[in-house]
Amino acid sequence: MQQKQRIIGLIIAAVCVGLFLIHEESAAKQNLEKARANLGRHLFYDTRLSYNLTKSCVSCHDPYLAFTDGYRTSSGADGYNVKHNALSLLNVKYRTKYTWANPAVVSLQMQIQFPFFNEHPTELGWKGQEQLIVNRFAADANYRQLFKLAYPNQKNPFNTHNIQEAIIAFEEQLVAYNAPYDQYLKGNLQVMNQQAIAGLKLFGSNKLGCMKCHVWEQPFETNVANFSSGIRIPSLRNVMITAPYMHDGSLENIFAVFQHYEKKYSLNLNKKEQQELIAFFNALTDTSYLSNKELLNPFQYQ
Description:
This protein has 302 residues and is mostly helical. It folds into 2 domains: 26-175, Cytochrome Bc1 Complex, Chain D, domain 2; 180-286, Cytochrome Bc1 Complex, Chain D, domain 2 (Orthogonal Bundle). It has 10 helices and 2 strands; from the N terminus they run ααααααααββαα. Strands 1-2 form a two-stranded antiparallel sheet. Strand 1 and strand 2 (231-232) form a beta hairpin. The longest helix is centred in the first third of the chain and has 43 residues, at 2-44. It is flat. The mean pLDDT is 91.
């Protein structure tokens, strides 16, 4: 009997030790992920990331514009504009397609190569300048500490792969799923006024049929992007703070969008209906992430 109790005691002790080790391993993994995201945050906002010290990721992805930039198309380090309007980075971790016109780009690891190494036009201008740029960060005492925390088992963690991996780790923290419409879908029916609700009904009506293309992606669900005529159909989250619109940024404001689709589909929207749609679009805005200083410029918010 005593031997049986000892065996049971040993089993319980082994289970407890195992659970403790699992907890410790999980905590260590979380700390490492946090350290890499913090390193990525610094890199994201640092113009030393471009070969001529003029551009950073935030140049095209401003947090106050839902991580877009407000321009028709973004300009690279040499001053030449890229082909497409900057896509928002919010909820990027849940996407399966990452560019306007190339559905073959199916991971952030693939996507990040473009701003780093594009030449026509140059964006960050890494091609042929890799070691020069990496050495800037290796020479900085603050970055040496950040890299040490993010890659504690590497003797020399300063390389292109780690820089890209850290930026991706930061980008994956950019999550915003708390718009009034999200709350409305959860049952908080008071969060949207009657004008916005009318706009929602109009948006989904047979008259407009917007929901045939624009799917409201949900938290933690993989967003399978639709493409129309080879061009990505974008999310409408934060649509009212991400003008100009379309893949080429050719439509300056929401009224230009209405006019565009009026010509294309003869929608016959009156002013009241336009205002209802705008009220609904405003209910798609979520800037709650701005209260998290760990997502903002570390050189302004320590």
